[in-house]
Amino acid sequence: MGGRALSAVDEPEPRAVAGVDAPSAGADGAAPPASALVALVELLTERNRQLERALESRIVIEQAKGVLAERLGVEPNQAFEILRRAARSQRRRIHLLAAEVVESRETPAVVRAAAAALHVDGDWTSADSAT
Predict the structure, then answer these.
(1) Backbone phi, then psi, for 77, in 5-degree steps?
(2) How far apart are CA 105 and CA 113, in angstroms?
(3) How far is the C-alpha of 118 from the C-alpha of 112, rounded, in Å?
(4) What pLDDT is recorded for position 16?
(5) Domain assignments of the chain as residue spans, ordered by start
(6) Residues 83-90: contacts with CB within 8 Å, 24+ apart?
(7) For 6-40, what is each residue's pLDDT tens digit?
(8) Which of 77, 62, 82 is nearest to 124 (CA)?
(9) Contacts 24+ apart (CB under 8 A), 76-85
(10) Mean pLDDT of the chain, nearest integer
(11) How crowded is the C-beta side of 78, counted as CA atoms within 13 Å?
């Protein structure tokens, strides 16, 4: 790629985490205070939890898109629009409604209504009538 290869003695530059100022050594080269390091670890731990929750939410939304695409015979992007419209109409978080879709063999009524509003004629009988 045009850059030089790293040798065993080269060390990559430390990367900054968005919005986080890493504690730096003092003017005399001394290590930063332990309290600053503890605060940084706590901040990064919280960020990690937030990212894990976001990933879990995204996974369940993707699963619901697949379920709805199969049930309704639509493309995944259309399934997402249906899910989004249904969640907004109920003022619910989309990942919570997505979890309901994934966990149930029956398509929630609010999702069926959103599909109808978008003129999607899904096969409501395949999974829904099995219950």
Answers:
(1) -70, -35
(2) 17
(3) 10
(4) 58
(5) 38-128
(6) 83/111, 83/114, 85/114, 85/117, 85/118, 86/110, 86/111, 86/113, 86/114, 89/113, 89/114
(7) 444 454 454 555 666 666 666 666 777 888 899 99
(8) 82
(9) 78/118, 78/120, 81/118, 82/111, 82/114, 82/115, 82/118, 82/120, 83/111, 83/114, 85/114, 85/117, 85/118
(10) 81
(11) 16
Instruction: Provide the H-helix boundaries in 1-131.
Output: 34-72, 76-89, 94-103, 109-117, 124-128
Q: Which one-letter DSSP state was computed for residue 10?
A: -
Over residues 75-93, the mean pLDDT reads: 96
Question: Residue 123 has what pLDDT?
Answer: 53
114, 94 contact by CB (below 8 A): no
pTM for the structure as a whole: 0.63
Instruction: Look at residues 120, 13, 1, 5 and name the one whose alpha carbon lies nearest to residue 68.
Output: 120
pLDDT at 32: 75
Half-sphere exposure of 47 (CA within 13 A, CB side): 10
**pLDDT greater at residue 2 or residue 119:** 119
Reported confidence tier of residue 108, pLDDT bands at 50, 70, 90: very high
